[in-house]
Specification:
transferase activity; single chain; Glycosyltransferase family 2 protein
């Protein structure tokens, strides 16, 4: 059972989180816990004033500016020197906790001695329970299938596609970075996040490493958070997210399966993008179809013409100009 001897550090990596970050911190402050909680906000050099507003409203929290946009994994690792508690929670700034979320999550983790990291149920602001990601490790062929098969069809084939029912608690193969409650001893053994990824693959890699060390991953549907996922902008064409996800997946595949597999991944992404563009051309018109065409074109440009794919005008272009999409780090081969 949690007690005053059980301490927790919450790490939040922020980049221009605005009001969402403040709502997240307010929900932490309103949490009911029987153990002390420390909060570290790692700010990736935000320019929207969110860091200053958080520091003014939450003087009890440790807010540090990295001076650059380090990305998700490296940003979380930046807080490591300040973590001296047995439990660590990686939390996205676009989330909100219920008053009993932390108490339930910590109790659930401590009651399962073989679980190294625990995830929880995530809900949209309207209460809709969000689906879990596919519970398999990426390969070139699997990435191709993910790009070609619609999500609603994948959810209809849970056994074949290794989906996990978000309404049911149980062991899982992968957890995702929006909410990851971990034992510090497990993180130290795993080396925390691999910093080769800017974002989108470091949580998958950490999940694989933790399981390889003999620890279990557990998804608890009994504790929940609200996850805004970008709010109204979620349905807009997102050049950054489309390109960064595939680049990180390519790095993940190269790390474990070699350069040939990474090249195969890129060619299959190009094939999937071409097939999607053909299908979309025959599907009529509409904003959703146009957004899908933009994303497919971005994938084609990235996979077939190289890493410097053209970002559409708007927020995606601005993030490119301000350095939000970093240069590709050198990929070191693992033994």
């Amino acid at each position: 059972m949690p007690s005053t001897s059980t301490a927790l550090t919450i790490i939040i990596v922020n980049w221009n989180g605005g009001e969402k970050l403040l709502r997240c911190l307010r929900s932490i402050r309103a949490s009911r816990t029987s153990f002390p909680v420390k909060v570290i906000v790692v700010d990736n050099n935000s320019t929207d004033g969110s860091r200053e507003r958080a520091a003014a409203e939450f003087p009890e929290y440790h807010i540090v500016n990295t001076g650059a946009n380090l990305g998700f994994g490296r940003g979380n690792n930046y807080a490591r020197p300040w973590v001296d508690t047995p439990l660590v929670l990686f939390l996205n700034p676009d989330t909100e906790l219920f008053p009993d979320t932390l108490e339930k999550a910590v109790h659930s983790l401590l009651s399962r001695p073989r679980v190294g990291i625990l995830g929880c149920q995530m809900r949209d602001p309207d209460g809709t329970v969000q689906e879990l990601g596919l519970q398999w490790f990426p390969t070139p062929g699997r990435v191709f299938l993910e790009l070609m098969v619609p999500g609603w069809l994948r959810r209809g084939l849970p056994g074949r596609w290794l989906c996990h029912d978000p309404l049911r608690s149980g062991p899982v193969r992968k957890l995702y970075g929006g909410f990851m409650l971990a034992r510090k001893e497990v993180l130290d053994a795993a080396g925390w996040f691999d910093e080769r990824y800017f974002m989108y693959a470091e949580d998958v890699d950490l999940s694989r490493t933790v399981r390889a060390l003999g620890w279990e991953l557990f998804y608890d549907a009994g504790c929940a958070i609200i996850h805004a996922c970008g709010g109204a902008s979620q349905n807009a064409p997102s050049g950054f997210s489309v390109l960064m996800k595939q680049r990180s997946v390519e790095q993940l595949i190269e790390k474990y399966q070699g350069r040939c597999a990474a090249r195969c991944h890129r060619r299959l992404v190009a094939l999937a993008a071409a097939l999607r563009l053909i299908a979309l051309r025959l599907s009529g018109s509409g904003q959703r179809l146009e957004n899908a065409r933009i994303r497919s074109r971005l994938l084609w440009d990235w996979a077939w013409h190289g890493r410097e794919a053209t970002i559409p005008k708007g927020p995606e272009k601005q993030t490119r100009q301000t350095g939000f999409i970093p240069a590709d780090p050198a990929i070191e081969k693992t033994p």
